[in-house]
């Protein structure tokens, strides 16, 4: 893989991660924040793949497999928690979820 392609992949990864961080800090909707966290995980996966290709080994790609597995479990549990809290609070605003009391 040429150095320019690696740089482009890392710049794209940086841009995606930055968009995710900005979304987490600025958005008030829980679903949007949740999607921004997933975007940040995918940005890290892209960086892992770029470094794996640059160094010519498969360790980064194996790590991506584990990150995707954890992200899938996190998505299932996270959405279940969001749905459960939404049923009790009737809102998806982040500030309404600041307390864990029902």
Write up what this structure looks like.
The chain is mostly helical and 102 residues long. The protein has one domain (3-97): Orthogonal Bundle (Helix Hairpins), CATH 1.10.287.3510. It is 79% helix and 0% strand. It has three helices and no strands. The protein has helices at residues 3-26, 30-55, 59-89. α1 runs antiparallel to α2 and α2 runs antiparallel to α3 (59-89). The relative contact order is 0.13. The mean pLDDT is 88.
CATH architecture: Orthogonal Bundle
> Whole-number radius of gyration?
17 Å
What is the global morphology? Answer: elongated
- What's the main sheet like? none
- Count of all domains: 1
As residue ranges, the low-confidence spans are: none
Please provide the ordered H/E string of secondary-structure elements: HHH
Task: Tell me the strand percentage band.
Answer: under 5%
